[in-house]
């Protein structure tokens, strides 16, 4: 009788620890996703100013400007990590094309406002990359717990599923942000 009671107590303790570990990992993944979403929203808020600045110098580049606006809207409409990743890739590509357009306009590249926006974009891209890594680490921890014994037994009982990673598609590179070189000084 004492052995059976001991096994029941140990099984209950194990289930509680497994449950708490799964919940903790799930909450960490939620927090990490929130960090990604915040950084993506900050970048999305910067995009209209960047588009307006470029439009002031390159108004005839309407297709590129419209593409950036569409990609931004697509990112704002996406909710699930896979949809956000796809929309993010489109926005990154569109921003890359916008930066390529900016390369053709020396006055635009020299503009203080454009340089400030470029710097803000570069900073946000770095923060997004860090947040994405943080999220993917949290998801890896959660998915490992959901998929491996013995915690997978509790995960199945809780109907917990593995979560998708936030991955960039091929070509989903960070937009190239280049600052103009100061003019050479006459000696």
Automatic annotation (TrEMBL):
GO cellular component, one term: membrane
Location(s) in or outside the cell: Membrane
Main location: membrane
Keyword Transmembrane: yes
Entry membrane topology: Single-pass membrane protein
UniProt keyword list: Membrane, Transmembrane, Transmembrane helix
TM regions (residue ranges): none
Family: Belongs to the LemA family.
UniProt name for this protein: LemA family protein
Organismal lineage: Bacteria, Pseudomonadati, Pseudomonadota, Alphaproteobacteria, Caulobacterales
């Amino acid at each position: 009788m004492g052995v059976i009671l001991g096994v029941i107590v140990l099984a209950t303790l194990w289930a509680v620890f497994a449950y708490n570990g799964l919940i903790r990992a799930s909450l960490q993944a939620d927090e990490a996703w929130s960090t990604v979403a915040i950084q993506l929203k900050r970048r999305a808020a910067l995009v209209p100013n960047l588009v307006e600045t470029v439009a002031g110098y390159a108004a005839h580049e309407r297709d590129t400007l419209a593409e950036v606006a569409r990609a931004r809207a697509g990112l704002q409409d996406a909710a699930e990590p896979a949809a956000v990743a796809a929309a993010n890739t489109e926005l990154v590509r569109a921003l890359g094309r916008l930066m390529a357009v900016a390369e053709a306009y020396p006055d635009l590249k020299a503009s203080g406002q454009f340089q400030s926006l470029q710097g803000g974009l570069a900073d946000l891209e770095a923060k997004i990359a860090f947040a994405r890594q943080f999220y993917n680490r949290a998801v890896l921890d959660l998915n490992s717990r959901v998929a491996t014994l013995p915690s997978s037994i509790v995960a199945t009982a809780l109907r917990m599923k593995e979560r998708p990673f936030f991955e960039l598609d091929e070509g989903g590179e960070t937009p190239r942000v280049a600052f103009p070189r100061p003019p050479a000084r006459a000696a």
